[in-house]
Structure to design on (533 residues):
C-alpha cells in the first residue's frame, strides 16, 4: 500500500514474563484514514499501539513510518512522538499536572517550542475538545469524560499527524461518546489519521474507514468494516455482529431487502433513514 | 481538602503568586521583627484579616484549617510554660510553671502564631500549581519540584482509589468486625502498593509518549496586572515590617 503512513511488518513482541503479545503482526495504516482496531481483551491492541509510538520496540519484525524503519535513537523518538500522538485508556494514568492548562502544555513544552507558540497550541487544543472554559480548573475536579478530553487536548497540542487512541469510549456515557465521536470527526476532516482501539462494534462499523481485527496477537482481518465485520469468523471471534448489520439481515428475512434496494446502512441513523425511504417507495408502489 | 477548596475559590485566586508569596514572606519577616508579643499578635491579626476579609475566606473555614496547627502550637506553648517534676516529695509528680521565662515564651508563641498566619495566607489563597511555579522561579531544584507535582496529582488519584476500595470492601462486609477491619485494611494497603507501582509505570509511559526526556515542563500560568499586584504586595508587606519594627 503506497499511501501507508505507518506500517508493521511481521512484528512480534514478547513481554518479560514470556507472554507473546504480538505474533507476526503485519498492518498498514493508511494516511488520512479512520482505522478501528477490534479484538478481545489481551488480543494485543495496546501492545501494537505502543509500537506505533515507539514506546515498545519489536522483538522481531519492524515498524516503518512513511516507508522508513523507525529510528529508536533519542532524536528519532522525539521526531516520531511529535508525529504520532497517543491517548491512553485511563486518563488518570496520563494526566500529570493538577491544572488542565498546564497538563495540555506538557507535550509542546517537551518539544522545546517557544512559550508563545505553546500558549497558542494549548488554547487551540482546548478549543478543539471544548474545554476552554475549564482550562483553569484542577484536573481532579473534572468528570471522567472531561479528563478524557483533556488527554486528547494534551496530544492535539503537539499537532501530530496521527492520533492513536486506546479505547477512548470506555467508561463514557452515550452523550459523551457522541461528543467524542464529533471531536474525532472534526480531527479527521482536518486531515488527521486516526487509529482507535475499541470494543464497540457499532461504533467501528459506523465510523471507521478501515477495521482491523486482532486475535491472540495476530491480525485476523483488515479491510472496510462493511466487508470485514460481516464475516462469520470475525463475528465469532468478536462474539457479536454490528447491530445495524443484524437488523438489516433480519429485515431481509421478512422480505424487507434494504441491500437489494441499494441501501448499505452503517449507523443507526442511516438504518432509520433507509427504512423510512424503503417504506415510502413500497407505499408508492 | 478545605485548603484546596479555598485556594481555588478565593477572591485573590487570579492574583500573581509572586505578589502573594512576597506578602507572606513579609509577614514572616515582620513576625520575627516584632519586638513584643503584642506586636506579633497584631501582625497575626493583620495577616488573618487579609486572608478572611481580603481574599474572602469564610472565618469558620479559616479556623477549621488552622485548628490542627493551632492545637500543635498550644501543646508546644503549654509544654514550655509548665514542666513536670518527678523528683518531688512522696514520689508524686509536681507541675512547675516557668514563671521567669513567661516573657520569652510569650514572644516565641506569638511569633509562631504570626508565622502560621503568614503561611495560611499563602496556602489558602494560592493553588499548589501556582506555589510550585513560584518555587520554580525561586530556582528550587527541578527534581524536588517534579516530585511535588507528581505527589500532588497522585494524592488525588490515590485518595479516589482508597475511597473506591473501602466502598467495595464495606459492601462485602469487610469492616463488619474489628478482626475483619484489620484484615481489610491490610489488603487495602497491599492493593495500594501494587496500584502505586502500576500507576508509576503508566505515568512513565504516558510521559514518554509525549516526548518527555526527564524534567517535567509545564507552561507557567499567566496573571493579569502582575507587576501592579507585586507593587501593592510589596508596599503592604513593607508597611507590615515597618509596623513590627517601630512598635514597642
Amino acid at each position: 500500500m503506497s499511501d501507508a503512513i505507518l506500517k508493521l511488518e511481521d512484528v512480534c513482541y514478547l513481554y518479560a514474563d514470556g507472554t507473546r503479545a504480538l505474533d507476526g503482526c503485519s498492518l498498514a495504516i493508511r494516511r488520512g484514514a479512520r482505522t478501528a482496531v477490534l479484538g478481545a481483551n489481551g488480543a494485543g491492541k495496546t501492545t501494537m499501539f505502543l509500537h506505533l509510538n515507539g514506546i515498545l520496540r519489536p522483538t522481531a519484525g519492524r515498524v516503518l513510518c512513511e516507508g522508513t524503519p523507525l529510528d529508536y535513537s533519542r532524536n528519532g523518538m522525539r521526531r516520531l512522538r511529535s508525529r504520532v500522538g497517543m491517548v491512553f485508556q485511563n486518563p488518570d494514568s496520563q494526566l500529570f499536572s493538577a491544572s488542565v492548562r498546564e497538563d495540555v502544555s506538557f507535550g509542546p513544552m517537551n518539544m522545546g517550542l517557544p512559550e508563545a507558540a505553546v500558549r497558542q497550541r494549548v488554547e487551540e487544543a482546548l478549543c478543539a475538545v471544548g474545554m476552554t472554559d475549564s482550562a483553569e480548573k484542577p484536573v481532579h475536579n473534572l468528570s471522567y469524560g472531561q479528563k478524557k478530553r483533556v488527554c486528547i487536548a494534551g496530544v492535539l497540542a503537539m499537532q501530530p499527524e496521527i492520533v492513536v487512541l486506546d479505547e477512548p469510549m470506555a467508561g463514557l456515557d452515550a452523550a459523551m461518546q457522541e461528543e467524542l465521536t464529533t471531536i474525532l470527526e472534526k480531527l479527521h476532516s482536518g486531515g488527521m489519521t486516526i487509529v482507535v482501539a475499541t470494543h464497540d462494534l457499532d461504533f467501528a462499523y459506523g465510523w471507521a474507514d478501515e477495521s482491523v481485527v486482532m486475535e491472540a496477537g495476530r491480525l485476523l482481518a483488515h479491510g472496510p468494516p462493511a466487508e470485514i465485520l460481516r464475516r462469520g469468523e470475525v463475528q465469532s471471534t468478536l462474539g457479536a455482529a454490528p447491530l445495524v448489520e443484524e437488523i438489516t439481515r433480519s429485515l431481509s428475512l421478512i422480505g424487507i431487502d434494504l441491500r437489494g434496494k441499494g441501501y448499505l446502512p452503517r449507523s443507526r441513523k442511516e438504518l432509520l433513514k433507509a427504512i423510512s425511504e424503503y417504506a415510502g417507495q413500497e407505499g408508492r408502489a | 481538602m478545605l485548603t484546596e477548596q479555598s485556594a481555588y475559590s478565593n477572591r485573590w485566586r487570579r492574583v500573581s503568586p509572586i505578589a502573594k508569596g512576597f506578602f507572606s514572606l513579609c509577614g514572616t519577616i515582620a513576625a520575627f521583627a516584632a519586638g513584643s508579643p503584642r506586636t506579633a499578635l497584631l501582625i497575626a491579626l493583620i495577616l488573618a484579616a487579609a486572608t478572611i476579609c481580603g481574599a474572602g475566606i469564610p472565618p469558620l473555614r479559616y479556623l477549621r484549617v488552622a485548628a490542627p496547627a493551632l492545637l500543635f502550637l498550644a501543646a508546644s506553648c503549654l509544654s514550655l510554660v509548665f514542666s513536670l517534676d518527678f523528683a518531688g516529695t512522696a514520689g508524686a509528680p509536681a507541675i512547675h510553671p516557668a514563671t521567669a521565662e513567661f516573657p520569652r515564651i510569650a514572644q516565641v508563641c506569638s511569633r509562631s502564631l504570626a508565622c502560621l498566619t503568614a503561611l495560611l495566607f499563602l496556602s489558602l489563597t494560592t493553588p499548589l500549581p501556582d506555589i510550585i511555579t513560584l518555587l520554580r522561579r525561586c530556582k528550587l531544584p527541578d527534581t524536588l519540584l517534579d516530585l511535588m507535582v507528581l505527589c500532588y496529582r497522585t494524592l488525588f488519584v490515590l485518595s479516589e482509589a482508597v475511597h473506591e476500595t473501602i466502598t467495595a470492601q464495606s459492601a462485602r462486609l469487610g469492616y463488619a468486625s474489628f478482626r475483619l477491619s484489620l484484615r481489610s485494611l491490610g489488603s487495602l494497603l497491599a492493593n495500594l502498593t501494587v496500584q502505586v507501582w502500576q500507576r508509576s509505570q503508566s505515568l512513565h509511559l504516558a510521559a514518554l509518549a509525549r516526548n518527555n526526556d526527564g524534567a517535567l515542563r509545564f507552561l507557567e500560568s499567566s496573571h493579569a496586572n502582575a507587576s501592579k499586584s507585586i507593587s501593592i504586595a510589596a508596599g503592604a508587606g513593607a508597611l507590615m515590617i515597618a509596623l513590627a519594627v517601630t512598635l514597642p
Q: What stands out?
A: Chain B has nine helices and two strands. The two ends of chain B are 39 Å apart (CA to CA).
